[in-house]
Every structure is written in C-alpha cells, then in structure tokens.
6-phosphogluconolactonase (Albidovulum marisflavi), 223 residues
Amino acid sequence: MKLVEYPDSELMMFDLADLLASELSAALRQNEGASFCVAGGSTPGPVFDILSGVKLDWDRVTIFPSDERWVPETDERSNARMLKRRLLTGKAEAARFIPLYADTPAPEDAVEALSEAIEPNLPISVLLLGMGADMHTASLFPKADHLEQALSPDAPILVPITAPGAGEPRMTLSARVLEDAMNTHILITGEEKRKALMRAQTLEPDEAPVRAVLDAATVHWAP
Ligand SMILES: O=C(O)C(O)[C@@H](O)[C@H](O)[C@H](O)COP(=O)(O)O
C-alpha cells in the first residue's frame, strides 16, 4: 500500500482528479476504450466535480459504480443519482454509464443481467474506492451475509449483499474484480478513517474487507 497524505482536503481533491485524468488518458492512448469504476458515498463528490470539467475523450470512457444501494435513481441514497449529477455532467456527460441497479425486488434477481453488462469492461482501467470507518470498501462489509463468496478468488463479478450498517440491500463488485484493476486509489478523510486504515493492515479481509485491495492501492488521505 502506498499512502499519500495531503495537508488539506481541497488540495487532495484537485491532485487526485488530476492523477485520475492522467491515468484515464494513458489507458485511452493504449486501448480503444477505458473503464472507470467509482465509489459512491459522499467523500469523492468534489473529485467528480473537478473531473467532469476535464478535457478527455469521455465518449470512450465507461463509468460504473463499485457498488449500489438497492434503491431507484430517484432516491437520494442512489449512487447512480449522485454520479449522474456530479460526474456524468459537463464534459464527462459524453461517457457511458452502466448501472448496478435494476428495477427488480431484490439484487439477486438482477445479478446475471448486470454482470453481462459489466464483463466486457473488465479489467477496470482506473478504480476509485472509498472506505468506511468499519473498514468496508465498495459494499464488502464486515459481517455481510455473502462476504465469504464476495472475497473468494473465484467469486462471480457481482454479489448481492445485506449487512448490518449497510442500510438497504446492495449490489457490489466482488473483491477479485476490484483486485484486478490496473490502477487502484482509495480516498479517505479524517482521523477515524486513518486509524481504521492502519488497523485494517493488521487484519484479514474477512474482518477488514478493504484489506483485499490494499496491497495494490494508493490511499489518499487528508484531515
Ligand atoms: O455506496 C457506498 O456506500 C460506497 O461505495 C462505500 O463503499 C463508500 O465509499 C464508503 O461507505 C465511504 O462512504 P463516505 O465517503 O460517504 O464516507
């Protein structure tokens, strides 16, 4: 794991947006298209605001969330809603978006169709994850019902997740799909998450799921 500490959050958001844009550009120089997989939640919003104004061949970029809460896009907790408002706007409006949600009663009903849409876009070119103070990343939550399956080396692309602390049921990319990404970044702020990150390094993924992606990741932290 590489840890980059910034003196303040605003500087971090600008530097990280710049870095992600250059990694996407490099991926686009080498390939016809690039995939950009991004966390939901609240922390990365400012990075998305900056990135959406960056000049890039966005029409060759496919964006999808690392995980989704099982709510329609009209719901304020929908990651797709946030991403469409803050990332897929401005210059980045030209990017293609693949949802991890379908209008079915439960995530289990949509695994197959959603996985088919994601598969041609793997491995992920650039991955931006977040982390919770409980050491979850994407929707790989400690004590989740299908965590063992989601962490296994032969896991499917997507795994439905129900977990204490997760709110509604969710859909998450499995750990092996996240681990295979070509460039991995984790964005966190505040002392509580910094402590959780340090602790996660001493634990196994079943207790600290973020551990599954830490080795290959650059973690960006600001107070
Ligand atoms: O949809 C989600 O909830 C996520 O993708 C999740 O893994 C998130 O990145 C962390 O929970 C951190 O969330 P915050 O940035 O809101 O603290």
Summary: The CA atoms of residues 96 and 142 lie 32 Å apart. The two ends are 19 Å apart (CA to CA). Strands lie at 2-5, 34-38, 61-65, 67-69, 96-97, 126-129, 158-161, 170-173, 184-189, 217-222. The chain is about 30% helix and 20% strand.
